[in-house]
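As agreed, record minuted below.
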Amino acid sequence: MSKTALRVLHVEDDFADAILVQNACCEAGDFEIEFEVARTLKDAKRKLGQGFYNLVLLDLRLPDSLNPSHTLETTMSACGETPVMVLTGSMTVDLGHLPSDIPSFDKNASLSCMDGRPPVHLAGLIREAAENGDTLSI
């Protein structure tokens, strides 16, 4: 897997969650992922129109979105060819808003070690999604 620097637009309204994701990537040893955070759907659309990103990391529940489907549809139309990775802490509720062909995984389960298993290496998933051009849900 390449260690080329990636630009990731992280669309996340919760500051603590954004920091958690960035820390998880640093702890995995991947310091070549540059995160820019957008806290609203409106801000994400503006940033996507102004710059290039290798990946959009998307929370489905944003304060200015109608619902998770609206968030996903709006982001997909704004990002063009840029792959989207859905990262949500409410997967059991949001799963119904995702297309059936998008695999899903709850970020709370992936970033915690409460069950004794090591956390998923988010940095690797981010790189894989960006390099493959896939839209993923974790």
